[in-house]
Design brief:
With 145 residues, the chain is an alpha/beta fold. It has a single domain, classed as 3-Layer(aba) Sandwich (Rossmann fold), CATH 3.40.50. It has six helices and three strands; from the N terminus they run ααβαβαβαα. The two termini are 24 Å apart.
Length: 145
Protein backbone atom coordinates (compact mmCIF):
# COMPACT_ATOMS: atom_id res chain seq x y z
CA UNK A 1 0.00 0.00 0.00
CA UNK A 2 2.87 2.39 0.71
CA UNK A 3 4.10 2.18 -2.87
CA UNK A 4 0.58 2.86 -4.13
CA UNK A 5 0.36 5.97 -1.95
CA UNK A 6 3.82 7.13 -3.10
CA UNK A 7 2.80 6.84 -6.75
CA UNK A 8 -0.48 8.68 -6.10
CA UNK A 9 1.40 11.41 -4.25
CA UNK A 10 3.88 11.78 -7.11
CA UNK A 11 1.01 12.09 -9.58
CA UNK A 12 -0.76 14.70 -7.45
CA UNK A 13 2.39 16.80 -7.10
CA UNK A 14 2.38 17.11 -10.86
CA UNK A 15 6.08 17.80 -11.20
CA UNK A 16 9.16 15.88 -12.09
CA UNK A 17 9.33 13.57 -9.10
CA UNK A 18 11.95 10.91 -8.61
CA UNK A 19 10.76 7.84 -6.74
CA UNK A 20 13.24 5.58 -4.97
CA UNK A 21 12.04 2.21 -3.71
CA UNK A 22 14.16 0.80 -0.92
CA UNK A 23 14.75 -2.87 -1.64
CA UNK A 24 15.68 -5.00 1.36
CA UNK A 25 17.96 -7.89 0.40
CA UNK A 26 16.57 -10.05 3.21
CA UNK A 27 13.76 -12.42 2.31
CA UNK A 28 10.69 -11.07 4.07
CA UNK A 29 7.85 -12.92 2.35
CA UNK A 30 5.60 -15.58 3.79
CA UNK A 31 4.60 -16.17 7.39
CA UNK A 32 8.16 -16.57 8.67
CA UNK A 33 9.29 -13.45 6.82
CA UNK A 34 6.36 -11.51 8.24
CA UNK A 35 7.16 -12.54 11.81
CA UNK A 36 10.89 -11.88 11.41
CA UNK A 37 10.20 -8.48 9.82
CA UNK A 38 8.12 -7.37 12.79
CA UNK A 39 10.71 -8.65 15.23
CA UNK A 40 13.58 -6.97 13.37
CA UNK A 41 11.67 -3.66 13.21
CA UNK A 42 10.91 -3.77 16.96
CA UNK A 43 14.58 -4.48 17.66
CA UNK A 44 15.59 -1.55 15.42
CA UNK A 45 17.74 -3.72 13.21
CA UNK A 46 19.29 -2.41 10.04
CA UNK A 47 18.93 -4.13 6.68
CA UNK A 48 21.13 -4.58 3.67
CA UNK A 49 19.48 -2.62 0.88
CA UNK A 50 20.01 -2.49 -2.86
CA UNK A 51 22.14 0.44 -4.10
CA UNK A 52 20.21 3.69 -4.55
CA UNK A 53 19.70 5.51 -7.83
CA UNK A 54 19.26 8.93 -6.23
CA UNK A 55 21.29 10.88 -3.69
CA UNK A 56 18.93 12.55 -1.17
CA UNK A 57 21.47 15.36 -0.61
CA UNK A 58 20.69 16.64 -4.12
CA UNK A 59 17.04 17.43 -3.26
CA UNK A 60 15.54 20.36 -1.38
CA UNK A 61 12.76 18.13 -0.02
CA UNK A 62 12.64 14.36 0.41
CA UNK A 63 9.28 12.71 1.03
CA UNK A 64 9.73 9.43 2.86
CA UNK A 65 7.09 6.76 3.30
CA UNK A 66 7.04 3.45 5.11
CA UNK A 67 4.69 0.62 5.88
CA UNK A 68 4.44 0.05 9.61
CA UNK A 69 5.89 -3.16 10.97
CA UNK A 70 5.03 -3.85 14.62
CA UNK A 71 4.54 -0.12 15.35
CA UNK A 72 7.86 0.73 13.70
CA UNK A 73 9.40 1.83 10.41
CA UNK A 74 10.87 -0.86 8.20
CA UNK A 75 14.46 -2.01 8.63
CA UNK A 76 15.27 -0.82 5.09
CA UNK A 77 14.10 2.69 5.93
CA UNK A 78 16.06 2.65 9.19
CA UNK A 79 19.16 1.81 7.14
CA UNK A 80 18.41 4.56 4.60
CA UNK A 81 17.97 7.21 7.29
CA UNK A 82 21.07 6.04 9.17
CA UNK A 83 23.17 6.07 6.00
CA UNK A 84 22.04 9.58 5.06
CA UNK A 85 22.07 11.37 8.41
CA UNK A 86 22.80 15.04 7.89
CA UNK A 87 22.37 14.86 4.11
CA UNK A 88 18.63 15.44 3.88
CA UNK A 89 17.72 19.15 3.95
CA UNK A 90 13.94 19.02 4.45
CA UNK A 91 11.66 16.07 4.90
CA UNK A 92 8.03 15.02 4.89
CA UNK A 93 6.91 11.65 6.22
CA UNK A 94 4.04 9.30 5.53
CA UNK A 95 3.21 5.89 6.91
CA UNK A 96 0.67 3.20 6.16
CA UNK A 97 -0.49 0.74 8.79
CA UNK A 98 -2.92 -2.12 9.22
CA UNK A 99 -4.70 -0.97 12.33
CA UNK A 100 -2.31 1.19 14.37
CA UNK A 101 1.27 2.34 14.71
CA UNK A 102 1.69 4.81 11.86
CA UNK A 103 2.15 7.74 14.24
CA UNK A 104 4.81 5.81 16.15
CA UNK A 105 6.66 4.98 12.93
CA UNK A 106 6.67 8.65 11.93
CA UNK A 107 7.93 9.65 15.37
CA UNK A 108 10.79 7.15 14.99
CA UNK A 109 11.60 8.55 11.53
CA UNK A 110 11.79 12.08 12.92
CA UNK A 111 13.92 11.04 15.89
CA UNK A 112 16.36 9.04 13.78
CA UNK A 113 16.68 11.68 11.06
CA UNK A 114 16.89 14.55 13.54
CA UNK A 115 14.53 16.51 11.27
CA UNK A 116 11.18 18.14 11.89
CA UNK A 117 8.83 17.04 9.15
CA UNK A 118 7.33 19.71 6.94
CA UNK A 119 4.26 17.47 6.68
CA UNK A 120 3.08 14.13 8.03
CA UNK A 121 0.48 11.71 6.71
CA UNK A 122 -0.77 8.51 8.33
CA UNK A 123 -3.10 6.19 6.42
CA UNK A 124 -4.62 2.85 7.21
CA UNK A 125 -4.16 0.09 4.68
CA UNK A 126 -7.93 0.14 4.20
CA UNK A 127 -7.90 3.86 3.29
CA UNK A 128 -5.06 3.26 0.84
CA UNK A 129 -6.63 0.17 -0.73
CA UNK A 130 -9.96 1.92 -1.24
CA UNK A 131 -8.41 5.24 -2.39
CA UNK A 132 -10.28 6.85 0.48
CA UNK A 133 -7.75 9.50 1.49
CA UNK A 134 -8.02 12.37 -0.99
CA UNK A 135 -8.70 15.02 1.69
CA UNK A 136 -5.78 13.87 3.81
CA UNK A 137 -3.54 13.85 0.73
CA UNK A 138 -4.61 17.38 -0.25
CA UNK A 139 -3.79 18.64 3.23
CA UNK A 140 -0.41 16.88 3.17
CA UNK A 141 0.43 18.38 -0.25
CA UNK A 142 -0.65 21.87 0.85
CA UNK A 143 1.96 21.72 3.60
CA UNK A 144 4.65 20.85 1.08
CA UNK A 145 4.14 23.96 -1.05
Amino acid sequence: MTKKVALKLAGELGADVDIEELVDKNKRSGVVGYIMSGRDAMQKKLAVIEPLRYNPAEYDLVIIGTPTWAYAMTCALRTYLTDHLGEIKQVAFFATHGSDGGDKAIKQMAELSGLKARAELVLTSKEAAQDNYSEKLKEFISLLK
